[in-house]
Amino acid sequence: MQDIQNIDEGRRRALLADQLRARRLEKDLSINELARLAGIAKSNLARLEAGDGNPSLETLWALSSALGVNVRELIDPEPARPRIHRASDEFDARAETADFAVRLLSTCPVGATRDLYRATFQPGSRKVSGPHPLGMIEHVIVISGKALIGPANAPETLATGDYMAFPAGQKHIYEALEADTTAIVIMENG
């Protein structure tokens, strides 16, 4: 599945439409039934499944709850490759009644554990990590500076605010490209 943050708005809506329709059909629900369960208008759901409209945060939560899935499964299915969210990407879910927006970066699978770290590193040397146990996912959010991060065979340049997740069961690197680069690193073990 493509990384939803690295594609245009039209394709993003089409992916959401595909996910909604697939999840609804998996549950053997009609559009009427899902709209009723989610407490939204049938016309709104039909527009979303057609790839039109821009759902609010509340609508996404209502639909995910009615379908019994995590909201991520609707807007950003888990890829099997590194996932990058650029700080400059604009796909926030906005609240209906307040100036409040969220961007889902990642969810924790049931039964998984996460450890949270703050990493500070400087240019001039590359941190090379050997493979962690299979199934471990590394999540990184750069909070200051710029760095080359990710699988050793395909690292990405991340700037302040960028997020990346990648399977950590392979050799991976951290290399600061600016002084005093800082990142939040989350190790998820499922």
Question: How would you describe this structure to a colleague?
Answer:
The protein is α+β, with helices and mostly antiparallel strands. It has helices spanning 9-26, 31-38, 42-49, 57-67, 71-75; strands at residues 83-85, 93-94, 101-102, 113-121, 126-129, 136-144, 146-151, 156-159, 163-167, 172-176, 181-189. The strands form three sheets. The chain has a five-stranded antiparallel beta sheet with strand order 1-9-6-11-4, with no helix packed on it. The radius of gyration is 18 Å and the shape is elongated.
Name the quaternary structure. single chain
Structure summary, number of beta strands:
11
What's the gyration radius in Å?
18 Å
Strand order of the largest sheet: 1-9-6-11-4
The averaged pLDDT comes out at 83
Beta-strand share of residues = 25-35%
The geometry reads as elongated
Tally of DSSP helical segments: 5
| Structural class by helix and strand composition | alpha+beta
* Unreliable stretches: 1-7
- Secondary-structure element string: HHHHHEEEEEEEEEEE
The N- and C-terminal alpha carbons lie at a distance of 20 Å
Largest sheet: 5 strands, antiparallel
Question: What percentage of residues falls in helices of 4 or more residues?
Answer: 25-40%
